[in-house]
Amino acid sequence: MPSARPSDRRSFTRYPCRIDVAIGWGSNILNGVTRDIALSGMFIEIAEPLWMRAEFTARLAIEEPIEVDCIVRRVEPGHPDGEHGRAAQGDPVGDDARLRN
Hints:
Layout: E1 15-16, E2 20-25, E3 28-38, E4 41-46, E5 55-60, E6 66-76, E7 84-92
Antiparallel strand pairs: 1-3, 2-3, 2-5, 3-4, 4-7, 5-6, 6-7
């Protein structure tokens, strides 16, 4: 069910979903999973920490994979299971218009 909190200042509705994501960060590939997604970005749970404004490419593992250039906009502290959360804002890579308005 989409987030509909009155205090939510986001422009687009967030939809909870779990999608495996490979994060290309420099020469490293980090594995994570989305917690929610919207037209303006997504929240990714990863074990390795990334800092605010870190830039990376996320490849979403769906039937036709999508690559999105992202920047970290919000960080949540680590959870007891060792996962860290990152809210990333991004744009599709190249001419992939599937995520554009």
